[in-house]
Amino acid sequence: MKISYDSEIDALYIRLAEGEHQCRTLQLTEEIALNIGKNELLVGIEVLDATKVLGGGNVPNVVLENISFTVA
């Protein structure tokens, strides 16, 4: 999983599946869209106006719970 934030356009993208995917977009709200790939795989989540939608005017903190990982 990769989370990226573009401060110039205030957009957050959460990539859940690596690699190239042909996707269709499911628009949940004006600000939130899901990218759906083959076999209904959720590839990514896009959040526009991210500081307003997620952080009450600030870039939100990210907390990982119960996730083990290794540093490359």
In summary, what is this structure?
With 72 residues, the chain is mainly beta. It is 8% helix and 36% strand.
Describe what this molecule looks like in 3D:
This protein is mainly beta. The chain contains one helix and five strands. It has a five-stranded antiparallel beta sheet with strand order 1-2-5-4-3. A hairpin with a 4-residue loop joins strand 3 (about 25) and strand 4 (about 30-35). The longest helix is centred in the last third of the chain and has 6 residues, at about 50-55. The chain is globular and about 35 Å long.
Provide the succession of SSEs.
EEEEEH
Strand order of the largest sheet: 1-2-5-4-3
Low-confidence stretches: none
Write down how many β-strands occur, each being a DSSP E stretch of 2 or more residues.
Answer: 5
In round numbers, the mean pLDDT is 87
N-to-C CA distance: 14 Å
- The percent range for helix content is under 10%
Output the structural class: mainly beta
Beta percentage is 35-45%
Question: What summary fits the major beta sheet?
Answer: 5 strands, antiparallel
Shape: globular
Q: What Rg do the Cα atoms give?
A: 13 Å
Question: How many H/I helices?
Answer: 1
Pfam family, one: DUF2283
Protein name: DUF2283 domain-containing protein
Organism: Floridaenema aerugineum BLCC-F46
